[in-house]
Amino acid sequence: MPLPMNLHIDRGSPVPLYHQVVQGIEHAIHSGDLAPGTKLQNEIDLAKQLNLSRPTMRKAMDELVRSGLLVRKRGVGTQVVANQVRRPLELSSLFDDLSRGGSKPSTDVLAFAHNEADKHERELLQTEPGSSVYRFTRLRSVDGKPLALMENQVRDDITELDATMLAEHGLYEVLRTAGVNFRLAQQRIGAVVANDYQAEQLQVEPGAALVTMERTAFDDTGRAVETGRHVYRGDSYSFELTLVER
Fold first, then answer.
1. What is the pLDDT, as a whole number, of residue 130?
2. Which of 32, 45, 94, 132 is most deeply packed, by most CB within 10 A?
3. Rounded CA gap, 137 and 92, in Å?
């Protein structure tokens, strides 16, 4: 089956061509344009259809197979898996997740600074002494209801950031636009009780249960890009994991 014709390859984009293919096919699968069980053309024909090299197309297809969205069957070819595992191929932010779910998130930037990184930040972001970082705290809300209080540090050799930009766009959206191709993260999920400041911002009682997430994200070159600690209202947010037997 030919790929959906709305799969657009932007050769002027900083996003690698193979990853644009991955994103396009992933979107087609999740939107239903490529139904479970759909058989795709071979890689040579797909490469011709998109005017790409065969190695580029093979790299994209290999990643989709590794992610569990496609399967190769001998004598049959490449197919969309019959039972989809909706596992994102790239790291997502809360802004991404809410937007994809049809919500309209809003963001208040409570604090923003650009100054020298401390020792702990340098260790997390793997930067040299004397390097600087962007530090900011944001309150993310949905339909006027506070959902998450997010503290982040971003190395400053990627792109320039400002408070207005972060109020209007998700952090990962901004960084991807700057050419960051997120690849993996070290993440820890836990729980705390709200202190007075967190309770005030999230509009909960002091001592209320909060979900925590600490993450340091890396790009496809192995560079640590951003690190952060977020707290979420325990009555409004949870993390969903899909576990696959290897």
1. 94
2. 94
3. 18
Determine whether 106 is exposed, middle or buried from the number of CB atoms within 10 Å of its CB (0-12, 13-18, 19+). middle
The pLDDT tens digits of the residues spanning 32-75 come to 788 888 888 888 999 998 899 999 999 999 888 876 678 887 77
Number of other residues whose CB lies within 10 A of the CB of residue 88: 12
User: What rounded mean pLDDT belongs to the chain?
Assistant: 84
Give the pLDDT band (50/70/90) at residue 24: confident
Q: Which of 129 and 66 is assigned the larger pLDDT? A: 129
- Region 209-225 average pLDDT: 90
Q: What is the DSSP string of the chain?
A: -PPPTT----TTSSS-HHHHHHHHHHHHHHHTSS-TTPBPPPHHHHHHHHT--HHHHHHHHHHHHHTTSEEEETTTEEEE-SS-----SS---HHHHHHHTT--EEEEEEEEEEEE--HHHHHHHT--TT-EEEEEEEEEEETTEEEEEEEEEEETTS----HHHHHHS-HHHHHHHTT--EEEEEEEEEEEE--HHHHHHHT--TT-EEEEEEEEEEETTS-EEEEEEEEEETTT----------
**Cα separation of 79 and 44, whole Å?**
15
10 Å Cβ neighbour count for 71?
Answer: 14
**Cβ atoms < 10 Å from Cβ of 96:** 18
Over range 154-176, report the average pLDDT: 94
- Nearest CA to 110 out of 145, 144, 138 is that of 138
Structural contact between residues 129 and 122, judged by C-beta atoms closer than 8 angstroms: yes
